[in-house]
Design brief:
A 4-stranded parallel sheet has the order 2-1-3-4. The model has no long low-confidence stretch (mean pLDDT 94). The protein is α/β, with parallel strands linked by helices. Strand 3 (47-51), helix 3 (55-66) and strand 4 (71-76) form a beta-alpha-beta unit. It is 37% helix and 20% strand. It has helices at residues 14-18, 37-42, 55-66, 77-85; strands spanning 7-10, 26-27, 47-51, 71-76. The chain has a single domain (7-85), classed as Rhodanese-like domain (Oxidized Rhodanese, domain 1). The chain is globular and about 30 Å long.
């Protein structure tokens, strides 16, 4: 994975996000995803979603793809952070 143009969206709660996140990532909690589909669609592509373990980001990716938004599940934010630093 290279950071070339990825928009990283963290779907954890604001409190979890505040406790640590990928530098430059955007926080949109999972429960807000359905109301913010257009915001996702307008973000610079490609989108890489993450959370704590990859479960919530997987749910968000499945939903967004059904809405026509191209995105990938990056898994846990710490793993994404590690891969970006060692790309």
């Amino acid at each position: 994975m290279k950071n070339a143009g990825y928009t990283i969206v963290d779907v954890r709660s604001p409190m979890e996000f505040q406790g640590g996140h990928v530098a430059g990532s955007v926080n949109i909690p999972l429960q807000e995803v359905p109301d913010r589909v257009q915001e996702f669609a307008n973000m610079p592509q490609p989108l890489l979603l993450c959370c704590a373990s990859g479960n919530r980001s997987g749910q968000a990716v499945a939903y967004l793809r059904q809405q026509g938004v191209e995105c990938e599940n990056g898994g846990g934010w710490m793993e994404v952070n590690y891969r970006l630093q060692h790309a």
